[in-house]
Amino acid sequence: MTEILSSYVAGDWHTPSGSIDGARAVHDATNGQLLHQVSSAGIDFAAVDEYARSTGVCELQKLTFHQRGVILKKLGAYLMERAKKYHEISFSTGTTKRDGFVDIEGGIGTLFTYSGVARRQMPNSTVHLDGGVERLSKNGTFVGRHILTPRQGLAVQINAFNFPVWGMLEKFGPMFVAGVPVIVKPATDTAHLTRAVVADMIESGLLPAGSIQLIAGDVTPLFDHLAEQDAIAFTGSAATAKHLGGLDCVRDRGTRFFAEADSLNFSLLGPDSAPGTQEFDLFVSGVVAEMTIKAGQKCTAIRRAFVPEQHKEAVAEALIAKLETQGVGDPREKSTRLGPVVSDKQRTDVLDAIDEITSAGAHVLTGGREASDELAKNLGGAYVAATVLQADGPWVDAVHDIEAFGPVTSLITYSSTEEAVRLAARGRGSLVGSVVTHDAEFATEFVRQVAPWHGRILVLDRDDAEESTGHGSPLPTLIHGGPGRAGGGEEMGGLRGVEHFMQRTAIQASPDMLTAIGGEWVAGAQRRTGQHPFTKTLADLRVGDALESERRTVTLEDISHFAEFTGDTFYAHTDEEAAAANPFFPGRVAHGYLIVSFAAGLFVQPDPGPVLANYGLEGLTFITPVSPGDSLKVTLTAKRITPRETDEYGEVRWDAEVVNQKDEPVAKYDVLTLVAKE
């Protein structure tokens, strides 16, 4: 009996037994051999839902953001050690070693990125502060602030077939950091690769119980259980995105829905990028790469290649010549650059789309159905020849509306910047566009006008080409998504990706209450003075511990010496008459950095102790000028305390406020220090 792919649900592996009606057969894309069947028959979806809520939410949300980040780092290392195994499985999906690196190592890399986001951009807490404090009353006793907390639900990710590892992990990373349990629904044709990675994630023992479940097969019954605290993150076709957006749970019960849909992305050759320029060669190489990597089965692939009318023939010749150097065949062979598409069904869909485009106003320059049939006959798998189409005119609707999701691109000419902008926007919203030009003026005009229609734009030229990751490579620190046809959603984007799965709440309270709720001292809240806070370890230090310094009088000699010693002889510090003529100064005034230096002398505890280093200063603002004879005092307050999970020290952010003899604020800033835990 053919193997049926198992799912991981409610803390255990589930495999449908017997003959299953409706099970989907999956074949090796390279030779058509039957691999297994996929079905979710017999899964108790109510139990899946309950396990995520009762176990997953509870166990995950016991951890702080930093603790989740440390787990992701360890998990990434664990999976990277097993990457070779994933590549062996990946070959059966038609993926070359080069393609697999983007999917497998690229996917694992997102875990490291989100580990860094959690540990460097978020507090070691379960509450994340969003923005600053808003003063809501005259005397400052009523203030407000936004906080982000984990939603009390689950996140369902529904992934496309083309990136079974990256597509799963780039969603799992931010979901896990946000504290939301994940249910993975992989695409059927490549579910076996996703399953292999998820099995190792579970086997690692690193993840809290309920953090992840995997459903191979139909996930539709789960939607009946989703509600307002839940989210669906989808990657795939625009048609499926439209269907999911109309689900009852989304429309009636408030389940959040994020879509990243396939789009007709463009790359444009700038008017300056004539044959013989580096930019011309970069454009041709970029289009060929996007046609051959993953056999063009990428949501970011270049479907529309815009070229100046005068370079049409040169571009076509260069593309055809470059494609002839790309080895086609079994992805297990090192020489192969273009493997098969994922299945015979996908092959049929791609060829039908090519036929539809050509019948509506385009012609084949290379590739097409006949060449693809010859390949499939000779190689025996789901092969599609690399196909370049030439649109019979720039405004042929088919090239802007129909996507052949394979190694296919259409050349489209433009005659002016205005027309190029309109053509790019004709895709009705795309994930990515790229412009290859060394003309900054053209790039500025073009990019600013097409940006509203695109989630990401690459500007490629000779200066950034060596380090550029290319047109089709989304990066975890930047958003991946796009407006309109592209789905209207966003994925990744560093901290932004985490925030998608959290609840933003405005808190209105007194400074003391807001300090307690947010874990960060707020101006106007209680301070505790007494023992010098620099003598306290993290174990003893508390938010609100403070020091009020003695006073120091600033003299004219101090100002003159600082000017001579540092070389900062700006007239406001050295010339009484010129300074008095400036409407911002009453006469000669102290240097701002002299004030900061004096403040440090007033609050620093000089003896060896728990404070290991001062590593920064943020938000420095000079408010009231300091004249000779003014007396300064500084108040230093422990604002935020962040122990590090993997070190014997932590970070302390101190609020520093310097005032003069009238208690007028002179300077405000945050001091950043490293402090020993014990």
Automatic annotation (TrEMBL):
Residues 44-462 form the Aldehyde dehydrogenase domain. Gene3D superfamilies: Aldehyde Dehydrogenase, Chain A, domain 1, Aldehyde Dehydrogenase, Chain A, domain 2, Hotdog Thioesterase. Residues 546-653 form the MaoC-like domain. One of its GO terms (molecular function) is oxidoreductase activity, acting on the aldehyde or oxo group of donors, NAD or NADP as acceptor. Keywords: Oxidoreductase. InterPro entries: Ald_DH/histidinol_DH, Ald_DH_C, Ald_DH_N, Aldehyde_DH_dom, HotDog_dom_sf, MaoC-like_dom, PaaN-DH. It comes from the Bacteria. Coiled coil: none annotated. Residues 481-494 have a biased composition (Gly residues). Belongs to the enoyl-CoA hydratase/isomerase family. NCBIfam families: PaaN-DH, PRK11903.1. This is Phenylacetic acid degradation bifunctional protein PaaZ. It comes from Brevibacterium aurantiacum. The lineage of its organism: Bacteria, Bacillati, Actinomycetota, Actinomycetes, Micrococcales.
